[in-house]
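User: These chains co-purify. Model them together.
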Amino acid sequence: MNHVIIVDLAYGDSGKGSISDWVCSPGRVRFAGGRPVQAVVRFNGGAQAAHNVVTTDGRHHTFAQFGSGTFTPGVRTHLSRFMLVDPLALAAEAAHLASAGVGDALDRLTVDRDALLTTPYHRAANRARELARGVSRHGSCGVGIGETARYTLEHPGDAPRVADCAAPQTLARSLRRLRDRLADELGPLEAPPVADVCEAYRAFADRVALVDDGYLGWLLRTGPVVFEGAQGVLLDEWRGFHPYTTWSTTTFANAETLLAEAGDTALRLGVVRCYLTRHGPGPFVTEDPTLELPEPHNQHGTWQGAFRTGHFDAVALRYAVEVSGGVDAVALTHLDAAARQPLRVCRSYQVDGQPLQRIIPGPERDLGWQERLTAMLLRARPVYEDPGPDWPGLVEGALGAPVVLTSYGPTAADKRAVASALGRRTPATR
Amino acid sequence: MGSGRWSTDVYDAAARFRAATGASAFAYSDSGAARVHDTLDPHGVPVRESRDSAEHPQSLAIAVLFDVTGSMRDVPRTLQAKLPQLLGLLLRKGYVADPQIMFGAIGDATCDHAPLQIGQFESDNRMDDDLGRILLEGGGGGQKTESYELALYFMARHTVTDCFAKRGRRGYLFIIGDELAYPRVKPGEVHNVIGDELPESVPVAKLVAEVTAKWDAYYILPAGASYVGDPEVLGFWRDLLGQNVIELADTGAVCETIALTVGLGEDAISLDDGLADLGDVGSAAGQTVSRALAVIGAGRAPLEVAAAPDDLDGPSGNVRL
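Assistant: Joint model of the two components:
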């Protein structure tokens, strides 16, 4: 089956949503092997995702938990067990989708019962902690993702899960325990009473199909499925530049695990802009505040800090490809910007007077190594070259994988499949 | 990335989940359509086929036909809402390798716009599309009779399944309803609805014999349905299908009932295994299903239970069956 995993190779915001929308849209079925895409599966992160999709008729939605293929009728969303599910935000997102002409988003949603819940208590604790941290903030989104991950590590058996939503007594117990533990640590939390949260979660469980692990296996056999990643490889909890990372595995790994359980495989599609962006603090060697590029959907967030812009960084992106185990193909986005601004390309850094072309990956799960990389990158200076007119060629050369899709704007109509590249490496030939 | 822009207000969320009825899943019917959708129209259809394919080499046909009149209107919505769980259960622990599910709807040929609607056997999400196109009629004649005989006629003479043709295994037919069939299928109605020319009417008992030759057929009679417990309705279907009449106290458990019935029929589970599986997937339908399937479950106890009588004193989870 011709499944696709879509992963952002940089710091997020490269356009996964619009690529996912394009792959799912009718008429793109050739990309997915000639059959309509059945579903979008989310396999990391949670409601902090903000994948913007603009339809050709001008509707706009910021996908947080629903898959970015939702504008195409019939395409489902499955939230796998690796997702951190926020039922409250799902309700609001479904309501906005309804106002954008998609009335059946909840009907097309399935949620794995083992997925963790992000609750108002996690969220309140997240914000309390970030405020206490003050200026040294990490660029958290403030929606409780980190707190959910932290609590699960500390109390693995007690973490509230999606299945609990249908079991009110279990849920009330685990929410009370969660609230009390967090309040002991951080002081009283600004969050609604447990009974009211239980009531809303119960309504969620009554309304949305909660499924077990057999479901995804079936889904994968019914037709092509798109695995839509959140955030980006350079923010990965283990491979990102510690401590400026997210609490989530942002590589292909979780999607590959789900596929392997079903005995299946997928095309690994990396998404990059022809320049780089980053929300919040952390290393950004090619940052260039003089670049003036329109960013309609990304502003400076209260919780994440500044939205930063810089040049194409082949060194960092090669590192992303290397630590994520390689990519089969690349989607290159925001090429309309190349015409607006004199973009440059960085293939090498200067660090302490020495040239550096490769960021060397450390051993698995070695945060000390990652911290040293961060320190090194904060000292690194970019060496720029003129990219020339052939962006796809440049990116293919830099990342060692064919550019199969180029994007010049937000809608599916602004995307171009690179036919020759597809012919060279279609999913079917794997 | 971003900043979690969707409201997480707990009270709004509860209200929104409660308000979102899922009505849009039946967009065709809700749009005010007054006739059978072309894709579900049985007229002129030679056969509906359930076939093996490279991806689904062990296809098993499962047909689910339900009464869409009056009191039974909740059934299709329950089926729609719980379809993913039904599939999850069937595939879990391999009750069935490659289920192909067809949905259809039964009305009254004497007074309805949609006496028979028949979808395709589908292995993927398209089965959901068929459900969404079913015309839900509010009417029903009020004379305790629906045209089940037309549906039986179609299933007997207009279906082909590879599970039966290639492997000699009957598919599963579930009819969910609460009324009587007309005693004979009439040539005029067959002509109008299906397009066949019948020389004479056929008694419903003969149609049932034809159907059960290639379908393991069940009648599910839900409680809350208008004639539940009605001895005439129950007796009518018992005469035709024997113990394969399932009285169901809650239509909300219809998907679980279908899944476990198939699991039992395939000898994949005992009733206790199936009830444990329901518990695993968080279904609250266990008790209802347990009562509904007590008879069928007893007849289909797995092999190891046959040894239980040797140990009459010892505890066995299955003895009470």
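The radius of gyration of chain A is 21 Å.
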